User: Fold Aspartate aminotransferase family protein from Tropicibacter oceani.
Amino acid sequence: MTTLSTNTPTAELQAIDAAHHMHPFTHASQLNAKGARIITRAEGVWLNDSDGNRILDGMAGLWCVNVGYGREELVDAAARQMRELPFYNTFFQTSHVPAIALAQRLAELAPGDLNHVFYAGSGSEANDTNLRLVRTYWAEKGQPQKQWVISRWNAYHGSTVGAGSLGGMKGMHAQGGMPIPGIAYIDQPYWWGEGGDKTPEEFGLERARQLEAKILELGPENVAAFIAEPVQGAGGVIIPPETYWPEIQRIVDQYGILLIADEVISGFGRTGHWFGSQAMGIKPHIMTVAKGLSSGYQPIGASILCDEVAEVVGNCEFNHGYTYSGHPVACAVALENLRILEDEGIVDRVRDETGPYLKERFESLTDHPLVGEARIIGMMGSIALTPDKASRAPFAAEAGTAGYITRERCFNNNLIMRHVGDRMIISPPLVIAKSEIDTLIERAWKSLDEAHAKLK
Ligand code: PLP
Assistant:
């Protein structure tokens, strides 16, 4: 066996990668045909690959590297914690300082009375926890028939069987026996793609009221919770019309349904607020967090519960937990990451300075002939590619590769942008500077030009 390093030739790394490494959400034939791009180092918002390219990371890894790459403070926090206590569990009435300190900090940061933290290793695990939590909550309150959880088509809540079922991705449901029973779905508030000739405001209300209809169909006495991302991420960065969330809040309040806000992407500054729930003005009973919690430097997720839910579930022994629930190294890194976000005023800067600048530049992409709309909040945004702006038409199915073609052009122009169908997404590190925003927009424009020439 050869010892591999970043000095190993790219082709050799790619061949071994294709032979032995199974990638998430990747078709093996793609790897065999082209090989994976191999990332070797990173600093700030910049990635280096094994061919010597310097790439602007417009996706913050997978929506997670909020404080940017190369933060020595996080390296030191991990090393310190590994030396002192590399692992201990939090089961059976044991605890340790990093888990305690992070829970205290999250309780301070999270809005309202979201004061109680149940740790997980990822966003998917935290959503699995939530599914069991909300059902346990109602059972403890003497209403065990309240089992249904309502979600939305095209939502993404993770990849485990529970979280994948909570999500509304039909491509995922088609594989491996999902969804599990007891999850119902309503349509997403995607005005550009599905709003027809309604105004965004009318459409937002209409889609929110599907929740009421679904609750009445299932019977309010049978519904445990509604789960949603404040702003859909993996579904295409879908920012709902302004009428949507206030109406959802009215409905969950009226029918006494728990609201779970999945903040895995929208948490920790991504929207220019600490949490997307604050940006949307909603009051969840439970928040799911991960990704930006540690800026991706360590795998960690959590469910943050309000007082009432924590008290009720606390009446029983909740038979649930992961070996890495409250992993000390992950907690220590997350705590240091939250300190950086706070001390450097990163969230405020996104809200008041770099976010508005990015918005102005990003929205100028609608001057490009391929771009029908550009929507952005804080540092998460998307553009819709269309052959006809007036009718908001999608590309024909056989040309449905417009997003893919543009993403490939971005790749070649050393910019990471992701595509979901014909929506192109950005979610850069929150520390991106104005000059780097300019570079991002220039490279996006050039890539759009090249894609446009190809699609003609
Ligand atoms: N929830 C949302 C909103 C997400 O975007 C993701 C991941 O992208 C998840 C949950 C799952 O998190 P993880 O990949 O850490 O399991």
Notes: The pocket of pyridoxal-5'-phosphate is lined by residues 122-124, 127, 156-158, 229, 233-234, 262, 264-265, 290, 301 (CB under 6 Å). The first helix runs from residue 10 to 20. The longest strand covers residues 114-120.
